[in-house]
Amino acid sequence: MKSFEYVITDPVGIHARPAGILVKEIKKYASTVTVAKGEKSVNALKLMALMGMGIKQGDTVKVTVDGADEDTAFAAIQDFFKNNF
Amino acid sequence: MISIQGKGVSTGVAMGPLYYYQRAKSTIRRYEVADIEAEWNRFKAAQAKAIEQLGALADKAREEAGDDAAMLFETHQMMAEDMDYEEAIEGLIKESLLNAEAAVTDTAAQFADMFAQMDDSYMQARAADVKDVSGRIIGILTGVVQGGIDSPVPVILAADDLAPSETVQLDKSKILGFVTEGGSGSSHTAILARTMGIPAIIGVGDQLKPEYEGREVIVDGSTGAVVVDADESTRSMLMAKREEQLKRQKLLEELKGKENVTRDGQKIKVFCNIGNPEDVPVVLSNDGGGIGLFRSEFLYLNCSDYPTEDYQFEAYKKVLSDMGDKEVVIRTLDIGADKQIDYFELPKEENPAMGNRALRICLNRPEILVTSVWEVKEARKMCELVKKELTEEGKPFADDVQIGIMIETPAAAVMSDRLAKLVDFFSCGTNDLTQYTLACDRQNNDLGRFFNPHHPAVLRLLKMVCDNAHKNGVWVGICGELGADLDLTETFLSIGIDELSVSPRAVLPLRQKIREVTVSEVKEKVLADLFSDENTI
Fold this sequence. Notes:
The structure holds two protein chains of two kinds.
Chain A: E1 2-7, H1 16-26, E2 32-37, E3 40-43, H2 47-52, E4 60-66, H3 70-84
Antiparallel strand pairs in A: 1-4, 2-3, 2-4
Chain B: E1 2-5, E2 7-10, E3 13-20, H1 36-65, H2 67-80, H3 83-94, H4 100-116, H5 121-125, H6 127-142, E4 155-159, H7 164-169, E5 175-180, H8 188-196, E6 200-202, E7 216-220, E8 225-228, H9 232-253, E9 269-274, H10 280-285, E10 290-295, H11 297-301, H12 309-322, E11 327-331, H13 359-364, H14 366-369, H15 376-392, E12 404-407, H16 410-414, H17 416-419, E13 425-428, H18 430-437, H19 456-471, E14 475-478, H20 489-495, E15 499-502, H21 507-514, H22 519-530
Helix pairs in contact in B: 1-2, 1-6, 2-6, 3-4, 4-6, 20-22
């Protein structure tokens, strides 16, 4: 299990389009990706729940990658966050 | 053989299977299910079909507008298969024994609520996406078809009546003719049929029965006859008539390229009415001299939210460039009354024909105006403002665009001497001018026989408008249905109308008529008739 913390810089936060692309990205890997903000955490494959967290610019999220291919997935997901959120 | 009589509002003969327009049901049935596994599978099948449809839409969007456009549909796909969404539906079906339609409706409401309650306007707007996706699944579950027609072959389309937004979304390649229970000669079904050059019969009432669906019908738009399972002699008679009409059409095509000029040399422009950029090819193939009325509201009816300025710009640009150096008259947004759009959220009115419609909406809501409009003093000011903005933004624009107004109310006709000083042209909408002058609702089927655009009150107003316009060097067009009425061509030529804008298919018949008239021979009598004691309509 590996995790990283990330501060959202995108002005609209985790909105529908990039969240959708994130789901597509995660589906490439076997690992489970969890996004947590404060107490709340969701499986990032659950598009609507992820959007429902209302993650905004300036929020810090903790992203956890857990599974057989977590090393490759971790790098890819981290890049994805930097490029999209 | 079953013969039904209605009122023909667009000529032509067509034969094909009868097909009822499929409309979304506004109420969803709720019931307890006995076989929960079967119900769950019913949902899974509908969900899979929705995902497949959205995939096809995404592919189409990607081809036409790129990856960004496709992403919307892909996001909708993900919502349709979202785990939480699916679990909620599963719970309602398997634990509350709710039928699939009701389970999707309730789940949609729950998720839409979640988005609506977020403190972020972007996320609040996502509630609409959830409803859209769910609506698609419910549509599949209840057997409703997107666009109203799901048939491999072209059909004679039957409906109670069609709303303007429904006519816009029809797959026109699938329609041979229309039969409607209600409607009027100036309803949108009738106008669409005339634009397409196919027959339409309205007002058949309950003579047309749903059990006729799928049976072969022949419709004759010139007599208003609808024949189900025609016998051999009727069938050959109507088919001969169809041949005859096609021959006439061919003869008319010989008039292509000829001038619209009377025997004694008076010229008149014959332009076309269109509602979409896609209508331009029909205008050109029928030899329309220009566009006398581009109904811009159809741009709005096609969208589920306000169309962007860029979208409108592209639509107008396409029409202008496709028309080359021919004139194009764009009418500013005319909604309200019989043309309703959900996202404008117009309050319900007792009498919408006289209510918040057309320019009145635009002047009440400048955010709509800025992307589309001009009209008289207020609108001219708005127009100058827009030009100033464009100059400041460094965007080039044509500064020699003519500005005209619609004359559709008796008030505008009576004041036309003053209005003529403010504009470059008048365009007379005769359907509305008739309804307001005669105080006669054009949508009301029962009033059909009182709705008489030949009424001297209407024609006198048109003459007054013409006289006032010409005194001020302003030109006058007619863009209502009346322009194509060959019984009035002599009248229009006599009062000096400069332009007639008609359905593309009406251009050549009108040209034929114009070329047969000698204005100097008929003018005196026509004008005298308008004010004659004998004229007692």
